Amino acid sequence: RHARGVEPTAAGLALRDLARQALHVLDDLPVQLRDFASGVRGQVRVFANISAITQFLPQDLAAFAQAHPQVRILLEESNSLATVRAVAENAADVGVYTAFAHGDTVQSLPYRRDRLCLVVPTQHRLARRQRVAFAELLDEAFVGLRTGSAINLLLAAEAARLGRSLRLGIQVTGFDALCLMVAQGFGIGVAPEGVFQLYAAALDICKVTLKDDWAERELRLAVRSLDHLPAAARRLVEHLQACAAR
């Protein structure tokens, strides 16, 4: 106080600024809540296998992020079995996995298709072949992915069906390492054709078409319930299916 009236202290001015900020936050609150409810804002937990991450998800998620900049995507690589289980146990909102018979209670939706091929060094005897059946390969040493991968399980099951076992000498965590090991002569490998194209120009490898029907695979989306998904997660699922349709 002084002769001409009163004026705020430094603490009073700080309190005024804080009060204004609080009022602005309260004013914005209904708008932000509407955004979360509509899917404009939010967070989506995604588990996906390496085939989907390597071939399709980078482009599809980039397009989604550009259209929905306020939705945060948490992506974790996981094999197909663990991906489906994560969705069933609510550790993930959306899963991307290679279709297989499972007992988990999830809703499965179509996404993409890919095709497996044989990857061999360019000097390998099989490099001159255009097509080969898996039954012809069982005397070869294989470079495989880590234990539990959908491709490893598929190859082991097919070998067992033929009364043989898979000679799995080296196991790696990704297709880049698989192609590098094949190029260095540690064995032959099986990978999606889309993955092979990523590394073919840089490495001394070539592909041979697999004749077997199972080489054609389906990648699917797993959710607990499409009707009960958070809005942002449902928008992502719709976006992924639209990308596949295009």
Descriptive account of the structure:
The protein is α/β, with parallel strands linked by helices and 246 residues long. Helices cover 40% and strands 26% of the residues. It contains 8 helices and 10 strands. The protein has helices at residues 10-38, 50-55, 57-67, 80-88, 150-161, 175-183, 193-199, 231-245; strands at 42-48, 71-77, 94-98, 107-121, 131-132, 142-145, 168-172, 189-192, 205-210, 216-223. Strands 1, 2, 3, 4, 5, 8, 9 and 10 form an 8-stranded mixed beta sheet that branches. The protein has a two-stranded parallel ribbon with strand order 6-7. Helix 3 crosses helix 8. It is elongated and about 100 Å long.
What's this entry about, in short?
The chain is an alpha/beta fold. It has eight helices and ten strands.
Query: Beta-sheet strand percentage?
Result: 25-35%
What is the mean predicted local confidence, pLDDT?
90
Shape: elongated
N-to-C terminal Cα separation, in Å?
72 Å
Helix residue percentage: 25-40%
Radius of gyration: 26 Å
Structural class: alpha/beta
Number of helices: 8
Strand segment count:
10
Summarize the helix and strand pattern as letters.
HEHHEHEEEEHEHEHEEH
Low-pLDDT windows of residues: 31-36
Largest sheet features: 8 strands, mixed
